[in-house]
Amino acid sequence: MTQQSETAAKSRPMTAPLEGVPLPDLERVPDYECGFWEGTRAGELRIQRCANCGRFRHLPTPMCPECSSLQYDWTQVSGRGFVYSFVIVRHPVHPAIREREQTPYNICMIELEEQEGLRVCSNVLQVAPEDIGIGMPVRVAFMPAVDDPDVVLPVFLPASEQ
Amino acid sequence: MPPNIMPADANGIRDKAAIVGIGETEFSWDSGRSELQLASEAIKAACDDAGIAPQDIDGLIRYDMESNHETLLTQSLGIKNLRHWESVSYGGGAGNAVVGHAAAAIAAGYANYVVCFRAANLRSGVRLGRARGPERIAGGADSFAVPWGSMAPAHRFGMFVRRYMHEYGATSRHFGWVAVTLREHASRNPRALRREPITIDDHQNSRMVVDPLHVLDFCQENDGAAAVVMTTPERARELRHSGILTLVEAAAQGSGPRNDGIVYRPDLAVAESEHTARDLWARARLSAADIDAMMFYDHFTPFGLINLETYGFVPRGEAKDFVDGGANIRFDGMLPVNTHGGNHSEAYIHGLTHVQEAVRLIRGDSTAQPPQKTINRVLSCSSVAQLSGAVIIRRG
Looking at the predicted structure, is the pLDDT value of residue A109 above 60? Predict the structure, then answer.
């Protein structure tokens, strides 16, 4: 928790992904990344998994860094995890963030429960930035990007402890 | 696993190359001139300092972010035959690596006078801290970061810092002592862009930009250029600074295992440059105890603490105590750091000014020269995540 949480008014929570920021062009993303975005469009968090040794990996790559297999699957994960690290962006660096007054917003590295060190970058919605902390349990949700609903973004929500 | 065929202490460049000239342009928010102009001026200044003519240069090592490519410079500098050229990738990771590459080229006999340089309008031109425009992303690390707003170096390095704070109990106030100290050093340096001294309260009260980073944790974004000239020690003894040679004693580069390791490496509280540090010390056959001053890549102040631990000046987790109050890291302290003011307060030239300051300290003409000790060895180390480089420069 940040020091401000007890002394200052809390900032508003994020309720949706950011608007106006660059999105992937799904026509141009490489073959070894497509499965991620096909998964989110189907409402599933799918992570690249080696077909030989079974290790998950993210960011996606053509080859397994553990066993060098070129075979992989896109495996649905539970979508449960915890906040491994985070920042609160208070100063906008992109025109759309500035013009649409989208600060503050959080960026979180979410560690997924399936494998130690398996992380995705996302936002945690429905929680004031001052209340985000390392270790906070979260669960995935999916929201289409405002600027292109074909791109469905995984976001996370606070979850109760298991 | 195949055997490691390289002895850990293999060091074919040891004392084979000397830095004989350093030069730079003025640093500014708006240079008002081209990046080729800046590069030409800085390289000419470095040649003047060395006592050679630009036409004598036959090797160029640039950052791969550099817009000044080799053919532009051969013409501008009057080089008749560029016998060796390289570009080193990865922004600040190239900062000291360029010097290691130049030393290797000189040790191999590929060139007589090798120049390492960086010239850029990083304020009036394209700013690294600003996000790109509205175009779509064709995959890669950005496509898994930018849609959630992770668009600037501070966003990713902030994740690193947060995790480090969580693991080791460092606070923003500790980072503030680095800021106060670097600004004090800059206050003595007429080249520096930010010379107004600051207090720890100024730091703590400064605008929060990317929590946990205050604006006074950030380096500058500025225009300018810097260059160093290198040659063999034998030639160095015939040149202008023949009295005190500044030799490259060892160099190392290293990486971690992951793409975008700033946020994806296995343990975010530990620097990937620990690989670089291990090789550097083995090659030099030295340890942190042998170093008189440390120049670290201060894109953000917390990396002062992290570098102190990574290179073994203090045990992991104890840098917060070492920097507290600033006395240990001041120019007159136990371990002077960034006596020029660093990227934080002098100027951001992608770490090359740190190498220049190492040379000044050994020559004895830093504007924050440690008053009570002779500087014989300086460590200059670059960014702590993904690809990093480091060099040890010693008095010869």
Answer: yes
**Taking the CB of residue B289, how many other CB atoms lie within 10 A of it?**
7
Decide: B298 and B340 in contact? Cβ < 8 Å: no
The answer to whether the beta carbons of residues A21 and A145 sit under 8 Å apart is no
Residue from B211, B217, B221 to probe the interface with A (highest A Cβ count within 10 Å) = B211
The 10 Å CB-count burial string (b at 16+, else e) for B373-386 is eebebbbbbbbbbb
Length reported for chain B = 396
Confidence of residue A2 (pLDDT cuts 50, 70, 90): very low
Structure tokens of B214? 């205050």
Q: Determine, yes or no, domain membership for A109.
A: yes
CATH of the domain at B107: 3.40.47.10
- Flag whether residue A129 sits within 8 Å of chain B, measured between CB atoms: yes
Please indicate, yes or no, whether residues A31 and A72 belong to a single structural domain of this protein. Answer: yes
- If one counts every other C-beta atom within 10 angstroms of the C-beta of residue B278, the result is 16
Look at B212 and A87 and tell me if their CB atoms are within 8 Å: yes
Interface check for A8 against chain B (CB to CB < 8 A): the answer is no
Q: Could A105 and B149 be called an inter-chain contact, meaning their C-beta atoms sit closer than 8 Å?
A: yes
Average pLDDT for B334-348: 98
Task: Give domain status of residue B154, yes or no.
Answer: no
DSSP string, B316-366: TT-HHHHHTTSGGGSTTSSS-B-TT-HHHHT--STTHHHHHHHHHHHHT--
Q: Which residue of B has its CA nearest to A156?
A: B148
* Closest residue, chain A, to B129 (C-alpha): A93
The residue whose two tokens read 């040379």 is B359
pLDDT value at residue A161: 63
Q: List, edge to edge, every strand of the sheet that includes A56-57.
A: A56-57, A46-50, A72-76
- Please tell me whether residues A72 and A86 are part of one structural domain: no
Strands B59-63 and B114-121, sheet pairing: parallel
SS3 B110: coil
Please state, in angstroms and as integers, the Cα–Cα distance from residue B7 to each residue in B103, B235, B249, B283, following that order.
19, 30, 17, 9
DSSP characters over A96-123? HHHHTT--SEEEEEEEETTSTT-EEEE-
Q: Is the ipTM of this complex over 0.90?
A: yes
Rounded Cα–Cα distance for residues B255 and B258 (Å): 9
For CA atoms B27, B33, B36, B37, the dihedral sign is negative
A113 and A64 within one domain? no
Q: What is the pLDDT of residue B385?
A: 83
A162, A93: one domain: yes
Q: DSSP letter for B52, please.
A: -
**Phi, psi torsion values for B239, nearest 5 degrees:** -100, -175
pLDDT in tens, A25-84: 999 999 999 999 999 999 999 999 999 999 999 999 999 999 999 999 999 999 999 999
Active-site residue flag, B297 = yes
Total domains, chain A: 2
Give mean pLDDT, residues B297-322: 97
Looking at every residue in chain B, the average pLDDT score rounds to 95
Domain residues for the domain of B65 are 18-126+221-236
